[in-house]
Write a structure and sequence with these properties.
alpha/beta, 5-stranded mixed β-sheet, 22 helices
Length: about 625
């Protein structure tokens, strides 16, 4: 093994992995565990020694080769757990390594450069970021100038490599590979539990399924609970069938949580699209009709559905904290969270039809990248304007987006609320919500909170296949791009001009097309922004990419440096969303703690609408 820690390392680890699989197939799980344990140690050693020296592009290529090994560990643990309980250690540790690995290492480079005193390196970093901004901007706008795009990409990758070699193995990256489930366990109190959800392939049934690895302070090993099939969970999440979701995605876990008050959990795969707060632990007999007519966003299926009322939700039993990875409990991420700065930028009442105002001539060649957002808030009771509010979605793709008059009312109300609490408040409405000016101001001085009320969109892979049937010009970029980070985004000032087929007009006059994609968001510097509120339709969705999670707006904002996000998982109702956000901001002015304020607001909404989780559970706070 010592000899193998050079160029032969990968081949040797692969051989050990193959032996482990062979013994597992033979039913000798103890021997399989021995070989797999040696293989994973070699893999982790290699990652720790070499991964931080790779450029972002090289990391993606490297991980593409390695990820199957870590995924196979989950399948092994499910098969072996009854005869070899310690096999769950392998699985938990593998998930701590693999989950969001590329996202986290990207952020570490940003942080390491920001802490450096090397001015030349900082200048190179700034140049690399600008090149990537320009590339993402052209990609999102559907540019046909592939030669320039490739030049930007090549130059950025070259600078990336130079920077990584200068920094070497910075401590944060190396420490990440040393964390085990024991480190997570040591940071839990007696009333805490940590859960890593994982996806695995069941070779017998030829189906993808899910499992939960549960850790409590007194456990000798993580405990494994087998969960439901991926297709069943996906269907139940789409239909908001919270009883089925409880049975398929949680039920077996409850027996392990006696006397637990607080649960930290990290979803995987399709579980990223599940609102765990609303899982129904006790279904009643009363039938409840759900009317989606006033929802914000794409409505899939019938407008009206009938479901059974729920007597108890998961949020009634536990204090739930969703994390990107439970590694955050052990690596100090949660303890190092920055304090809330009482400043906010509110965007709403956007004019989608006209060219936005410019404070000065736009540098069209060097314009930064976009970033739009969505959120909402208003009175606690419906107003006469409720019927005028449009759906905040891409349901009319290729057609003009309807105005959203209620969003202007939202930002006015929030502004009034926060101004009385001595917050620094800036609002952007009508023609003052242009993409170029908005991004420029964010980069100059990012606020503590970013709250945007607008249309949002997220197109799945299937949209690419359907595109040939539609009459679209350059706007097809947002729907047919191979990059899932381009297929989702938010609409800013004048975006209808681009959305309906004339992006060049917007680009020529403003430097941007007015449509902010997740790919563009990822290259912004929002490291001083603690919270982003995205309350447009389905802002938490995107393409699921294995252990990396959802490639969409959530990932974009994480890469930009935002700690916490409030995002929606389905088409959200206008009136009740405003109620939820009003409650949230009222408490935030006092607590300056988004996690506690959001939990309190959702509990109040749960009490107001005890039988209608579809009205308030569509939002989740992710760290």
């Amino acid at each position: 093994e010592k000899k193998a820690l050079g160029e032969e390392h990968s081949d040797y680890a692969s051989s050990l992995n193959n032996l482990g699989i062979l013994y597992s197939d033979m039913g000798d799980y103890k021997a399989a565990e021995t070989y797999l344990n040696r293989a994973i140690k070699l893999n982790i050693n290699n990652l720790s020694s070499n991964f931080s020296w790779l450029s972002a592009q090289e990391k993606q290529a490297y991980w593409q080769q390695e990820k199957d090994f870590y995924n196979n560990i989950n399948s092994f643990s499910v098969s072996a757990v009854d005869s070899v309980p310690s096999s769950t250690e392998l699985s938990y540790n593998a998930n701590l390594i693999s989950k969001s690995l590329l996202l986290e290492t990207s952020r570490e480079l940003d942080q390491a450069v920001s802490q450096s005193t090397d001015e030349e390196m900082k200048a190179q970093f700034a140049e690399m970021k600008q090149l990537r901004k320009l590339y993402s901007k052209m990609q999102s706008e559907g540019s046909t100038n592939k030669e320039i795009m490739e030049r930007y990409k090549t130059q950025a990758d070259s600078l990336d490599k130079i920077l990584v070699n200068k920094l070497g193995e910075y401590a944060a990256s190396k420490r990440k590979f040393e964390i085990t489930w024991k480190d997570v366990q040591s940071n839990l109190t007696t009333s805490d539990a940590a859960i890593e959800f994982a996806r695995y392939y069941d070779a017998k049934d030829r189906l993808y399924k899910y499992m939960a690895l549960v850790v409590r302070p007194d456990y000798e090993y993580p405990k494994l609970i087998s969960l439901g099939e991926e297709d069943v969970i996906r269907s139940a999440a789409l239909n908001k069938d919270f009883s089925t979701l409880y049975n398929e995605a949680w039920k077996g876990i409850d027996s392990l949580l006696v006397r637990v008050k607080r649960v930290y959990y990290s979803p995987a795969g399709e579980l990223n699209n599940v609102s765990f707060l609303a899982l129904c632990t006790d279904e009643g007999n009363e039938l409840v009709a759900s009317n989606k007519d006033k929802n914000r966003g794409v409505v899939i299926g019938n407008n009206k559905t009938t479901t059974k009322a729920c007597n108890e939700f998961l949020m009634d039993k536990y204090e739930l904290h969703q994390l990107t990875t439970t590694r955050y409990l052990a690596d100090g991420t949660l303890k190092k969270e920055k304090p809330m700065q009482p400043s906010v930028v509110l965007v709403g009442g956007i004019n989608f039809d006209d060219i936005p105002e410019q404070t000065k001539d736009t540098d069209k060649e060097q314009s930064n990248e976009d970033f739009a957002f969505h959120a909402n808030l208003n009175k606690r009771t419906a107003s006469a304007n409720d019927k005028k509010r449009g759906k905040r979605s891409s349901s009319n793709y290729g057609k003009k987006m309807d105005p959203l008059p209620g969003t202007k009312e939202e930002v006015v109300n929030i502004s009034g609320l926060l101004n009385t609490s001595n917050w620094k408040v800036q609002t952007k409405s009508d023609k003052k919500a242009g993409e170029y000016e908005f991004k420029k101001e964010l980069e100059t001085k990012a606020p503590g909170v970013l709250h945007i009320a607008t249309h949002g969109f997220a197109f799945p892979d299937e949209a690419k296949k359907e595109s040939k049937l539609l009459d679209m010009n350059q706007t097809s970029t947002y729907k047919v791009s191979e990059d899932p980070m381009v297929r989702c985004g938010l609409m800013l000032g004048g975006s209808n001009i681009s959305w309906t087929g004339n992006p060049q007009k917007m680009i020529e006059q403003t430097g941007d097309d007015g449509i902010l994609t997740a790919a563009e968001v990822a290259n912004l510097d929002l490291s001083n922004t603690k919270l982003v509120v995205l309350s447009a339709c389905e802002t938490g969705l995107g393409k699921i990419e294995g252990s990396e999670g959802t490639f969409g707006l959530k990932r974009g904002f994480k890469l930009a440096g935002v700690e916490q996000m409030i995002v929606s998982l389905w088409s959200v109702p206008d009136k009740e969303t405003m109620e939820l956000m009003t409650l949230f901001y009222e408490d935030l002015t006092e607590s300056l703690n988004p996690v506690k304020s959001f939990e309190k607001a959702q509990k109040q909404m749960r009490e107001t609408y005890p039988t209608r989780p579809d009205l308030w559970a569509g939002f989740v706070l992710v760290r």
